[in-house]
Design goal:
By secondary structure, the protein is mainly alpha-helical. 55% of the residues lie in helices and 0% in strands. The chain is globular. The termini are far apart.
């Protein structure tokens, strides 16, 4: 069972001003565990690897694959989250290809 986390006033204020992911969970997993795993996975991901050449991404207004993955799980604001989830982005096409 997950123990509750107690936050200092400063930590709590930081959390209030940020978007927090809400994952579908199964018994034994917590949001915190998945967040930790995602942070670790992103550390292993090469930030310069992308699905499209940079000039094409810029032309279409897509963010890099690394930034899209990061901003889906840890967005700094609503706009960065929406940009990462852009329907016709390479990341969304890649995900829908593997889920179909």
């Amino acid at each position: 069972m997950d123990q509750p986390k107690f936050y200092t006033t400063e930590e709590y204020l930081l959390l209030q001003n940020s978007m927090q992911p809400n994952y579908s969970l199964v018994k034994g997993l917590s949001n915190h565990i998945i967040q930790k795993a995602m942070k670790e996975a992103l550390l292993q991901f090469p930030p310069d690897q992308d699905l499209l050449p940079e000039k094409d991404s810029q032309k279409e207004g897509f963010v890099s694959l690394f930034l899209a993955l990061h901003d889906i799980h840890f967005p700094k604001d609503r706009d960065s989250y929406l940009q990462a989830r852009k329907k016709d982005s390479p990341l969304m096409n890649f995900i829908s290809f593997w889920l179909d």
